[in-house]
Amino acid sequence: MTRESAAGFADQAASSLANILVIFACARVMDVASFGEASVAFAIVTAIIMGCRGFLGTSLAVLSGDHDRVKSELDRASGAALLLGFFIGLILVLYGAWSDSSIWIVFGLGCPFLAAQDVIRYGAISLSRSTLALTSDLVRLVVSIVCFASTFTSHHQFPPVAIVGSWPAGAVLSVLVVCFVLKVRPSPRSFIVLMADRLRERLGYAFDTLMMSVTSILYIVILTSLLGNEGVAGLRGAGTLLGPLNTMVAGLSLVMVPRLARSKASVSAMIREVIPLTTAMCVVAGLCGSLGFWLPESLGSALLGPTWVAAAIVLPIMAVEYALTAIRTSLSTILRARRAASRLVVARIASTVGMLTVAAVGPLFGGPEAVAWGMVMNSAVGVTIVAVLLTSLSRGQRPLK
Fold this sequence. Notes:
Layout: H1 3-29, H2 32-61, H3 67-99, H4 102-126, H5 130-150, H6 160-182, H7 191-196, H8 199-241, H9 243-263, H10 267-294, H11 297-304, H12 308-337, H13 341-361, H14 368-394
């Protein structure tokens, strides 16, 4: 792994940890109702960020290698992210005012900066400045650590609203750092010009990332309604133990799409390029999954409490699912790098339909274990579909319209 790639994965790890610490801090200082409200708002804003990431961030990544064009596009994309975040955030602010909720108001006010920060870090990596992207997310991480640490004082240093506000506050500082170093000049006025440029391709990327986020939320909602909180606990617990792999998978597009786009290689050459990293992720999945077989119950309970017993049963099965997901994601990065956005849409629709079908039907066939095996089958089908799409692409067929 190159230094640039390592910095990219470290950036994703820092970003994920910053987000997790804010959630933990909120859980420590809020009552159950307030934390539930904050969790919903967090999920919605995350979905917004994911949509902007696809529409604007991925569109930057596929241009990697053309420094001048990426730099010009970054000015427009960062401005567009601020503008989109402003209008969507305004809806959240109005809802917060209507429902008398300061939590929604803070999330709404922070939405433009959170969206812009994510797009700008994609721009930095597309300009081969992964270390700068890492620095920007380390700024966010420091803010999150300070807020999380404050919750352990005898008298909380920050009120709950300030804890929520630390998330966008860290994003603001991060945006300022990158904009200063790269001399980025966000240009919201260029939004119309940007919309007219590769709109269909951008919408394909946005659909892919947004549906991935929304489907994950719907999957948990459906499972909870059918299995109850106790039934879902084992699946969620196993997912927590597979967290290191989640971070690696999340970093794939961030790191590999610019790298593959710069190479301008053939599909077969790109596949060879992702094999070492994909193999490493499958090994990590196997190691995490093996915990369900050999980890003593005392240690497992120390990690997950009473949830460990249920999690240990499904953990090896879910490890297979996560390994297949890693393979699918690796292959999908090639579709992105080759700018086959419409093929990504096909793959995402198939994955979404399969995932929601498993959530709705799986509990009828044996509870959490049946759901876990259903997700393995869905992931296997997903790998097959992406492989077929890549095969057609490698044969020189035009991208699907």
